[in-house]
Amino acid sequence: MAGTSRGEGRAGLLNGFAAYGMWGLVPLFWPLLKPAGAVEILAHRMVWSLVFVAAALAVVRRWAWAGELLRQPRRLGLVTVAAAVITINWGVYIWAVNSGHVVEASLGYFINPLVTIAMGVLILKERLRPVQWAAVGVAFAAVLVLTIAYGRPPWISLCLAFSFAVYGLVKKKVNLGGVESLTAETAIQFLPALGYLLWLSADGGSTFATEGAGHAALLASTGIVTALPLVCFGAAAIRVPLSTLGLLQYLAPVFQFLLGVLYFGEAMPPERWAGFALVWLALALLTGDALRTARRTARTLAAGTDVPGTTLTTTTADAVRKAESGTSGRGTPTAPEPSPLAKP
Length: 344
Prior knowledge:
It contains 14 helices and no strands. It is mainly α.
């Protein structure tokens, strides 16, 4: 049994590295789709993602959730909101990468956990620990420094971070699995996206049929590029602790940042380095505090006593139990959590 458990853990880590690695390296893919514009690429991504995930669900015959969702108008409405928000997230990211803003896009995924915390305080009325307040304060200072560095607010980063923070908040309410959620969201996106592609083709602006079979195949592969990392993420989420998955999520923006600087050659003057350094300091504070709190909570649960000076909610306790057992449960959004569809 121990050997099986270790094998499962290794498989989970490999799948986690694969998922976040693919999300981190995806800036190499979007430029291959030129001369298609960002909106055309986005529409193809919506259409082909539905084709891919629907085929996958048909193979495993996992459709019971769809009937339940259709009978619940409130959840269906939340899925529609999620589809709208992730459309903004995907579209901004594709445009940013193909317009030479890979570094600024990576910043959006660095600050996403901090934005999630801020939304937890403002919307869910959560209480922060002193270190978390310090991390939020440092992140706010980083945004000010980067605003000076760019000569404008880093709106690409902020749009990506806030759109996915809202998306994550909505998905918590919907409570669907990753592949099922993507299927429902792309089903809502499908008709508008297909309608746009048909109009674009009729107007003579489509590149799908005019740039050769290779280009068409690349556009069609946007469905695989979207869904495959999610499948790997799902395999990792049920095999490794949540705390490990939360740390792995930083691989994607690190890879994106390195690609932006080293491969795409984007400028990083000293003031931008200073802004990014403040963001990384805020994340270090946040992650260290989350790990310390998780260890204290786990010890407290094992001992059956209360943590001195802390309030342990049922949600947090469940999250720690699930994290220790390696399931995909979620805790409160005050700890850095893995972001399954956050990635572009």
